[in-house]
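Take a minute with the sequence and fold tokens given here and flag any structure token that looks odd. Thanks in advance.
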Amino acid sequence: MDAIQATHLKRPCLESLTTQELIQVADSFGIDIPPELDRIFIIEELMESAEEEEVSDAPANKKAAPYRKLLEKRITEPVPLPQQYNITFIEVMLRDSLWAFTFWEVKSDDKEIYEKADDFVGYQLKVSEYRNSQEPFTILVGTEDDAWYIGFPPGGGHFKIELCALRGDEEIVLAASHPFTMPRLFNPSEDVVLYKNPLIRLSGIEDFSILHNNDRESRIKRA
């Protein structure tokens, strides 16, 4: 087996082939594949065959030459990630102690049904702290949105995020994230020297301009 074939008959490259292509490659090397054999075992057989030919220093199998091009193409050809998976889900990734990135998808058939309904209002993210009685907060998102950064209070807590469709007065939960924990940076009711905590600096909370009710009133322009 030549160097090119030996390199290509490695697990990552073989796993990039379809089951039918694996069977064709095995046939070209003279390996009999029983019907309904799982692709995992086909890959193992091909790798074992490659190792045997490398050890014996046997010449390259000429019958396998057409599949060398197939393997080379699979290695050099970029594989695009799908834009959508056509399933309904929501996932959460924590960025730091104050921010989480959430992304979601609504199955295309369901999405069409919801959005064509006369009473369809829109979608929202409902963020709930599930270990206490605090009211959840909601974020309205557009029909074309599929991701959002969400800020959380510095006091931390245990949360989940639900993706909901709004129809009239009804809230339909389409998907819910796994429960997750945001770490506590500090107690908002206490005076804290923000710059001394590296997690606080990372979160960027020092750049926030938080308006309280009395601040809002004082900023109203009066005639």
In short: The CA atoms of residues 75 and 147 lie 31 Å apart.
